[in-house]
Task: structure prediction
Amino acid sequence: MDSKMDMTFYFSSKFNLLFQSWNISSAGQLAGVLVGIFVVVLFYEGLKMSREVLLAVTLKRKGVMSAPTSTTPLLTIQQAYKRPSPSSNSGPRFAIVLIHLLQFGLRIVEVGLAYLLMLAVMTFNGWLFLTVVLGTAVGYFVSNLVKWSCLPLLG
Result:
């Protein structure tokens, strides 16, 4: 296995991406990879936002919050998942478990994507690095626009 890995950023259209068989060797392939990475980063940022909105909806339904906000204190989250007293009208426990499982599944996908993006950046290709940074900035901006437009609908 005689592959040399650069440990400094370089700007080239010839490199291996994540796997030995994913050999990028032309400008057209590089453009396709950059578009694909950009879309994956947008999806990653949207996934993070959707988990926040799901948490806000859960807390609102539990009656812990009067209105969802972008930052929820840890104490509020802990209150939402306390075991309900028999006299409280907190809804079925099964729904909370389902929402928790959904959050769990989304978190697994989120972490997997984050690690794949980290490994892509660790190829030290400057074009990939700039694409991930730009995709993160655009994804964060768009996700927050969507989140802030959805939150009033939840209240």
